[in-house]
Fold this sequence. Notes:
- The chain is mainly beta.
- The protein has one domain (2-63).
- It contains no helices and four strands.
- The protein has strands at residues 2-6, 12-18, 44-51, 57-63.
- Strands 2-1-3-4 form a four-stranded antiparallel beta sheet, with no helix packed on it.
- Strand 3 (44-51) and strand 4 form a beta hairpin.
Amino acid sequence: xxxKVYDVAGRQVRTLLDGQLFKAGEHSVxxxxxxxxxxxxxxxxxxxxxRESGPEVNTxxxxxx
Length: 65
């Protein structure tokens, strides 16, 4: 599974998961609000994209400060 965060312009902000395999069941991922370079993300709306074996799943993420 891959899980990545993108800004509204479509630029990749952070890779949270990249190719990890999980057993069946419920799982969670915690994001600390920083980008791949270690900088804190500004308040606003981002998009997370989850890809598995089927179609990708897009979800909005809102950062509040």
